[in-house]
C-alpha cells in the first residue's frame, strides 16, 4: 500500500465514482421507483401519479408484451443451445485439422462487426420477391430452384421469422463460444485422451467420457454469458423487423415505450423486468469469473 | 497417409467446410453486391457473376462513392470516430486512475466501493436512460459528443476498472518502494511506472471498448439521435434500412463501410482483440 494523504486517494477513484453514481446508481433507483408511476416524463411532473402495479399488470397481460416474453424465451433456448453446441463442436473438430487458424478466423470475424452490419447482410439473404420475378436472396433462389414458392422469411409468423432472426445472432456469436472452448480444450492433457484411445475407446467415447466432462464448467460460463446477451437483444430486431409480425422482444419494446409512445412508467417497468431476468445469470457469471481470475 | 485414414477423416473436413461456407457466403454476397450496379443487382442474384467473372462481369466502386457522398456516410464515419476515439481514451484513463486507487491506496470503504463498482456490471443499460435524459436536456448534453463520451465512459467503468485493477494488483510492490524512496509522488508514480507497465492490459481494454462503442447502436440512438451532424454509422445505416430497404446497392456498400475498420482491427491486432472480446462480453 502507498501511504498518502486521504484526499489524494479520492483524486484517483473520485472521477470513476462520480460517473458511476450519476450514470448507474441514481438512474437504477429512479427507474425502479418510476415503474410504479404514470407515463409522465419526470417523477414529480405532470401525469406522473402513483399507479401501483398497473404497469406490471400491463406487462403480464398485454398481448405484445406476452409475445416479447415468449420470443425472448425462444431466443434464450435456441440461440444458447446452438451457439454453445456449435462452438464446442467446432473447437474440438478444428483442433484436428491443419487449417485450424484460418477456419477459426472465418467463424470468429462476425464477432467484430456491428449487429447493424450483420442485419443488413442477413436481410439480403432473406430478400423476398414475388414469384414472377428473379429471386435475388440466396434462400429464396434455392427454394425456387428446387421447385418451391418463395417465402417471406422475416414475415412468416410465429416461428419461421423468429428463427430467421435467431440465426443472425447464432452467426455472430458462435465464433465467440468456439474461441473460449478452444482455449479450454487445449488445456486438457493430451495423455488423457491418448490413454483412452489405446484402451480401445473410439472418438465418440473419448468425446463423451473425457472431453465433455472436462469442458462442462466452461460450457456453464459460456451458456450464462449467451443467455445474458440474448435477454438484452435489441439491434437485430430493431433493424430487421422492428418487432413487427410477432417478432417483438423485451429490449425493443422498452425502446418503443420510451421513444415512440412516451410512456415512461411502462418503459421503466419493462427495464426492471430485464434487470430481474439478468441479475441471477450475471451473479453466477461474475462469481465464476472472479474465481478463475483469483486462481491465476 | 493411408487411404483408410483419408476416408475416415472425410466427414470431419466436410462438416468444417459446411460451417465455413455458411459463415462466408453471407459476407461474400454482401461484398459482391456492393460492387455491382443497381440494375444488375435487381435483375439477377449476386451468385450469377461467377460464370462470367472473367468475361465482362463489371464491378465498380460507384456504390461506395454514392453512399459516402450522397448518403452522408462519409460524415457518419467521421462521427463514429468522433464518438469512439475520445470516449475510449477517457474511459481507459478514468478506469486506470480508479484501478490504481483501488489496488494500491489505503482509504476508508475501499473494499466496499470496489465491490459496488464491479457489481454494477449487472445493470442493463435500459435501467439508466429514463432518469438521465431529462438531466441531459437540462444540461444541454443531449445530442452532443461530450454527452455520449461521458455515458460510454460510465457504462464501461465497472468492467474496465475491474480488468485493469486485476492487472495492477499484480505489479510487484518493490517497484513502488524504490519510487517512494526516490521521493516520487503517487501521481508521478502512476504516470512514470504504473501506466508504462500496464500497457498490455490497457491495450486489450482499449480495443474492446473501442469496438464496443464503434458497433453500438442503442446508446447512440438514446443520447445522440439521428441528426446527420452527429449520427454515427450504426444509426445512419439503421435509418437507411428503414427508409430505403430495397436499394441494395446502397445498403450493402454502407454495411461494408461500417465493417471495414473493425475487420482491419481484427486481423492486425488479433491477440489483443480476442482477449478484448472475451472481456467485453461481460459488459452491461
Short synopsis of the structure:
The complex is a heterodimer of chains A (296) and B (284). Chain A is mostly helical and 296 residues long. Chain A has helices at residues 6-34, 54-61, 63-94, 100-108, 115-125, 138-145, 160-185, 190-198, 203-231, 235-240, 250-259, 264-294.
Ordered list of secondary-structure elements with their pairings:
The complex is a heterodimer of chains A (296) and B (284).
Chain A: H1 6-34, H2 54-61, H3 63-94, H4 100-108, H5 115-125, H6 138-145, H7 160-185, H8 190-198, H9 203-231, H10 235-240, H11 250-259, H12 264-294
Helix pairs in contact in A: 1-12, 2-12, 3-7, 3-9, 4-7, 7-9, 8-9, 9-12, 11-12
Chain B: H1 3-34, H2 38-43, H3 62-69, H4 73-104, H5 110-119, H6 129-139, H7 145-169, H8 173-181, H9 186-197, H10 199-215, H11 218-223, H12 233-243, H13 248-268, H14 270-280
Helix pairs in contact in B: 1-13, 3-13, 4-7, 4-10, 4-12, 5-7, 7-10, 10-14, 12-13
Amino acid at each position: 500500500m502507498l501511504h498518502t494523504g486521504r484526499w489524494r486517494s479520492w483524486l484517483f477513484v473520485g472521477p470513476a465514482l462520480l460517473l458511476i453514481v450519476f450514470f448507474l446508481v441514481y438512474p437504477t433507483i429512479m427507474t425502479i421507483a418510476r415503474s410504479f408511476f404514470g407515463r409522465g416524463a419526470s417523477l414529480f411532473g405532470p401525469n406522473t401519479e402513483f399507479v401501483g402495479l398497473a404497469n406490471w399488470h400491463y406487462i403480464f397481460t398485454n398481448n405484445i408484451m406476452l409475445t416479447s416474453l415468449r420470443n425472448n424465451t425462444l431466443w434464450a433456448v435456441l440461440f444458447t443451445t446452438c451457439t454453445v453446441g456449435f462452438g464446442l463442436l467446432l473447437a474440438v473438430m478444428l483442433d484436428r485439422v491443419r487449417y485450424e487458424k484460418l477456419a477459426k478466423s472465418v467463424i470468429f470475424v462476425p464477432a467484430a462487426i456491428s449487429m447493424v452490419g450483420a442485419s443488413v447482410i442477413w436481410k439480403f439473404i432473406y430478400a423476398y420477391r414475388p414469384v414472377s420475378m428473379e429471386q435475388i436472396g440466396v434462400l429464396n433462389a434455392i427454394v425456387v430452384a428446387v421447385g418451391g414458392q418463395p417465402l417471406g422469411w422475416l414475415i412468416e409468423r410465429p416461428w419461421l421469422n423468429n428463427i430467421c432472426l435467431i440465426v443472425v445472432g447464432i452467426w455472430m456469436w458462435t465464433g465467440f463460444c468456439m474461441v473460449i472452448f478452444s482455449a479450454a480444450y487445449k488445456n486438457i492433457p493430451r495423455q488423457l485422451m491418448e490413454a483412452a484411445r489405446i484402451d480401445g475407446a473410439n472418438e465418440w467415447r473419448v468425446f463423451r467420457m473425457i472431453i465433455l466432462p472436462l469442458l462442462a464448467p466452461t460450457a456453464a460460463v459460456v451458456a450464462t454469458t449467451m443467455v445474458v446477451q440474448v435477454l438484452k437483444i435489441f439491434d437485430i430486431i430493431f433493424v430487421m423487423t422492428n418487432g413487427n409480425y410477432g417478432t417483438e422482444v423485451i429490449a425493443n419494446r422498452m425502446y418503443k415505450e420510451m421513444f415512440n409512445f412516451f410512456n415512461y412508467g411502462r418503459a421503466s417497468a419493462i427495464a426492471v423486468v430485464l434487470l430481474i431476468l439478468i441479475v441471477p445469470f450475471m451473479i453466477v457469471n461474475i462469481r465464476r469469473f472472479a474465481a478463475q481470475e483469483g486462481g491465476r | 497417409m493411408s487411404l483408410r485414414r483419408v476416408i475416415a477423416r472425410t466427414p470431419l473436413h466436410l462438416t468444417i467446410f459446411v460451417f465455413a461456407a455458411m459463415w462466408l457466403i453471407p459476407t461474400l454476397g454482401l461484398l459482391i453486391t456492393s460492387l455491382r450496379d443497381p440494375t444488375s443487382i435487381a435483375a439477377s442474384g449476386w451468385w450469377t457473376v461467377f460464370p462470367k467473372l472473367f468475361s465482362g462481369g463489371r464491378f465498380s466502386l460507384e456504390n461506395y462513392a454514392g453512399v459516402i457522398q450522397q448518403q452522408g456516410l462519409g460524415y457518419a464515419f467521421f462521427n463514429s470516430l468522433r464518438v469512439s476515439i475520445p470516449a475510449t481514451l477517457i474511459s481507459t484513463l478514468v478506469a486506470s486512475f480508479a484501478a490504481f486507487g483501488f489496488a494500491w491506496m489505503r482509504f476508508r470503504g475501499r473494499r466496499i466501493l470496489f465491490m459496488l463498482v464491479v457489481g454494477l456490471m449487472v445493470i442493463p443499460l435500459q435501467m439508466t436512460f429514463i432518469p438521465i435524459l431529462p438531466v441531459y436536456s437540462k444540461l444541454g448534453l443531449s445530442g452532443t459528443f461530450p454527452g455520449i463520451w461521458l455515458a460510454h465512459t460510465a457504462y464501461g467503468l465497472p468492467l474496465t476498472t475491474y480488468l485493469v485493477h486485476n492487472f495492477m494488483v499484480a505489479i510487484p510492490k518493490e517497484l513502488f518502494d524504490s519510487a517512494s524512496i526516490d521521493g516520487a509522488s503517487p501521481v508521478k508514480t502512476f504516470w512514470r511506472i504504473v501506466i508504462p507497465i500496464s500497457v498490455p492490459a490497457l491495450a486489450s481494454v482499449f480495443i474492446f471498448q473501442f469496438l464496443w462503442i464503434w458497433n453500438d447502436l442503442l446508446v447512440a440512438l438514446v443520447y445522440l439521435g439521428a441528426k446527420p451532424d452527429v449520427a454515427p454509422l450504426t444509426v445512419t445505416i439503421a435509418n437507411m434500412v428503414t427508409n430505403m430497404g430495397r436499394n441494395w446497392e446502397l445498403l450493402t456498400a454502407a454495411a461494408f463501410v461500417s465493417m471495414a475498420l473493425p475487420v482491419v482491427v481484427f486481423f492486425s491486432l488479433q491477440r489483443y482483440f480476442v482477449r478484448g472480446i472475451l472481456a467485453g462480453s461481460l459488459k452491461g
